[in-house]
User: What shape does this take?
Amino acid sequence: MSEAVSRPTLEAVAARAGVSRATASRVVNGGDGVREPLVERVRRAVEELGYVPNQAARSLVTKRHDAVAVVIAEPETRIFADPFFALQLRGISKELTAHDNQLVLLLTEGRDDHARVARYLAGGHVDGALVFSLHLDDPLPGLIEGAAVPTVFGGRPGWGGGSNSAVYVDCDNRGGAEEAVRHLVGLGRTRIAHITGPLDQTSAADRLQGYRDVMGESDPRLVVASDFTPGGGERAMRELLDRCPDVDAVFAANDLTALGVLRVLRERGRRVPEDVAVIGFDDVLPVAGQSEPALTTVRQDIEEMGRLMARLLLSTLPRGESATGAPSSVVLPTTLIRRATA
Amino acid sequence: MSEAVSRPTLEAVAARAGVSRATASRVVNGGDGVREPLVERVRRAVEELGYVPNQAARSLVTKRHDAVAVVIAEPETRIFADPFFALQLRGISKELTAHDNQLVLLLTEGRDDHARVARYLAGGHVDGALVFSLHLDDPLPGLIEGAAVPTVFGGRPGWGGGSNSAVYVDCDNRGGAEEAVRHLVGLGRTRIAHITGPLDQTSAADRLQGYRDVMGESDPRLVVASDFTPGGGERAMRELLDRCPDVDAVFAANDLTALGVLRVLRERGRRVPEDVAVIGFDDVLPVAGQSEPALTTVRQDIEEMGRLMARLLLSTLPRGESATGAPSSVVLPTTLIRRATA
DNA sequence: GGAGGCGGTGAGAGCGCTCTCGTGGCCGTG
DNA sequence: CACGGCCACGAGAGCGCTCTCACCGCCTCC
Assistant: This one.
């Protein structure tokens, strides 16, 4: 009806309810220490006027913002090919929403963007940050430390950054990889290969470590580097077949890689799992709806990881009544999901 | 060094530069009408103190927020399976960043979330909204209209909402579909099928319309409904082959659907494109890195659409110096990208 | 040479809110 | 019955900024 151009203030609510601004404020913020009839009157006034608190005014005095930045520093395409980020984002969004916090999304590409993000965080526009910094040489963690903003990382950050006390949420990449490879061994496979992810990311490095834990320093030709993409998986698998035609199992660093692997195996006429068993990592394919022969994989609860990141961050913020000091990192367990390929 | 706990205020900058707060403010906001030596002094003070304006205080008086909400109201999985949203988000992010605006992400699922979003937008926390409301029966457009917030839609909204003046950015779904089907006709195909997207979305409906424009009211069995996912594409393709074994071309409503189609054709031993030609829509596969036999498809510049949405929205906001009144919707052209499947 | 104009600067109000503090009424207690 | 304590509420300051307005000095013009 009326132009929403001038929204009602707390003053207006107070006037309508016949109380002081202070009391109206108390009611809006929970109503503790205000007697029932007044609470009721104020509530009704809020309702009738369609009052919504002005967040800027509130922030000005409380120095809280009820907003959290999500920084995704992934160059180019990967964010978009992999349901991983999207799922995690959803978990984060759910948790933040449940606590009335807003999600400010910061996508970065390139070095200058890093500075921009650092400035933004240092600017005190948000109460905290959730950062996906996946590369060992990423300058972002350092910059963020300088910004003195509570931060939780998605995935164990690289060793850099100076502060080894960085809080992060990750899954048990190494343990999951071990389980996968052990499963292949249990199937009687002997020529078990691993196609890695980009090794400047801890998740990829840890999965390789898990593979090595079980296989020892086996035939080095059985380890091929790749990049977490289907295309990369294809290239790596071709190379692998050329090098080691006798390979009888492949542990791919993630599901997308496994997709490429399966494609090449089909193209080369190798049966899965009879000739070559395949295991992936992440269990994102059901989401993407593209299970070829249904992929055996190491499942991690990505959405839960997102939720956890948000929860951890919120628990460090002043408003948290929960008796938390500095939270510590969380590493979630993984589960081997047996399907058709191994 | 020093705790960043108390950040310097404009007052401090002014004091250090030996000017009034007003002058300091002028310099921070562009420096028009301030003489050079003073500008210089203030700039240096800002630098030395590491001053960053307090956005809350600024918003309180300007009533601007330099923030835009992006509302993605897509139930469940689809957002995450399809690179579409991610790409568009990136375009939006780039454009907003270039104009120093923040991106507040609102993911919704379920009806109650709609109310939450409406309240948030009505609350005047952001200067505008970019909304992806893809279903005809979505209540969101109506709620948003009530919130009286400048809004640009991603994709032509359904007819609902009351206001037919909704501004949106879309690609030429109908024209692109026409071109694809005409290409198939040009290849001499006669039994050309269409696997649709969810028809409660205008993009899917428009693509179907484009197909009909060329094919007329052909054999109704050649049109099979689906849902924009690879799994749905598979199911639809199986059904299609059972109904019409003589089909010699398929225009899939999007690339993900085409993926499922290709899989079924391979499974059934049909050669592509010799036996059955296939065309998709979107051209997201290169991004996702999963071109089987490289897919012929209708390309739309998704990232550009995102950028355009943001630009359109920003141009409606007060700060825009550009002489724009109410912007009008934009429909971007599409291009047929010929690859291997047709 | 004086009036008028104009550009550069400072003083001060006020955006809408929270929060401290002071006050008044009501209880319990000696 | 008087007094202290407590609880509920209101008054008012002030968060950090922008913006209007008044002021002042200089230049121009008659």
Notes: Chain A has 14 helices and twelve strands.
